[in-house]
Amino acid sequence: MSEPEIPEHLKSLAEIALSESRRLMEKDGSLTMTVIATLPSGKNSVLSIPNECGDLLNSSEAKKILFDLIRAAVQKSKATAVAIISDTWFLATTKKMLDDNPGKSVLELKNTLNFLDVEPLLAKGWVTRTEAISVQVQTEQSVLMIVQPYHKEGNRIVWDQRQQRCSPQSDFSGAQKMYGVHQSQAGHTIM
Fold first, then answer.
1. Is 173 strand, coil or helix?
2. d(CA 133, CA 15)
3. Dihedral through CA 169, CA 144, CA 153, CA 128, nearest 10?
4. Is 113:58 a contact under the CB 8 Å cutoff?
5. Contacts of residue 123, Cβ cutoff 8 Å, sequence gap at least 6
6. How many degrees, rounded to 5, is the angle at CA 38 between CA 148 and CA 21?
7. With contact defined as beta carbons under 8 Å apart, do 146 and 163 qualify?
8. Distance CA 91, CA 127 (A)
9. Closest to 128 measured CA to CA, from 87, 89, 93, 163
10. Are 83 and 44 in contact (CB under 8 A)?
């Protein structure tokens, strides 16, 4: 199945968001989270979390409350698109993880190890951590995801190869889902 087509104005919104985020990272060395909602009038409404509140985004409970509030505002305003921009990180498993756990698949290990406690996994060399700017642009039909990995060399930010993917909204799930039935609405717990 091919990726859904993203309208040009949403691609443009994603590119503007990514460009501005990169500029802020290079200027300030940090970035919290910004949400841009495109209203039915075509105007954009912007919500930025101040850098001083960035530590709140490390709390699962605070993020759940924040995304529930944003989702309610998106629904009430009848926003036609939502962009969520944040500085984030992700883990990738390594070959060493499999070598140290013979006979177990990555999926089995992911289901049995505590990936919320990252430091021991990093110390064992079982995972690598990659910093990235994440840009999601959602409509009722589609989700465009752009991940811009980076690493720091001293005070300088080096931008690595960007990844982009588009999928139907129906394939998207998690706390950041703004359109359609959200998992918690269906009676499932989101982790």
1. coil
2. 12
3. 30
4. no
5. none
6. 25
7. yes
8. 6
9. 93
10. no
**Residue 190 pLDDT exceeds 50:** no
Q: Which residues contact 169 (CB under 8 A, 6 or more apart)?
A: 138, 139, 140, 141, 142, 143, 177, 179, 180
List pLDDT tens digits, range 35-91. 999 999 989 899 888 878 878 877 888 888 999 999 999 999 999 999 999 998 888
Tokens of 89: 């990180």
58 in Cβ contact with 89 (< 8 Å): no
